[in-house]
């Protein structure tokens, strides 16, 4: 998992629960004293441990925490990658180009980064389908991001989420209608 995700998770925890909570989560995760630099990759297990500790501390599910976190980080990520986005884009345009522009830039700028591969199809003028397949199984984070993108552009969208089991594992399919 890329360090920027950890840096944003720390920011999310600090804003929503206070700075002391971040250190308590690290301690209860067995990661006390660990620092996460935004430019380096870290083991996926670390993020799962921190989210697991957050679940115990808040009584929320991992999906609830990840979706909330996804909504929280979207504005920062959109600022970071704003130069790669066409100012004429709206919600569906952004989502349609997320993999080819933003994830591609992440991979070029940080060869060790492994964002999920998204298969995106523009189904019509008013809909986009995103197939999220990742061993991380953090589709809830993606759902939060999608909701925040809709909010950013001031466009309400209907998001239908389905899960499909394939020979390679599980995929989450987001169909976004405007």
Automatic annotation (TrEMBL):
Domain of life of the native organism = Bacteria
Per UniProt, residues of the Heme NO-binding domain are 2-159
Spans traversing the lipid bilayer: none
Q: Which Pfam families match?
A: HNOB
InterPro entries per record: H-NOX_domain_sf, Heme_NO-bd, NO_sig/Golgi_transp_ligand-bd
The record, for PANTHER family, names:
GUANYLATE CYCLASE SOLUBLE SUBUNIT BETA-2 (PTHR45655), SOLUBLE GUANYLATE CYCLASE GCY-32-RELATED (PTHR45655:SF13)
Q: What is the recorded name of this protein?
A: Heme NO-binding domain-containing protein
Upper taxonomic lineage: Bacteria, Pseudomonadati, Bacteroidota, Cytophagia, Cytophagales
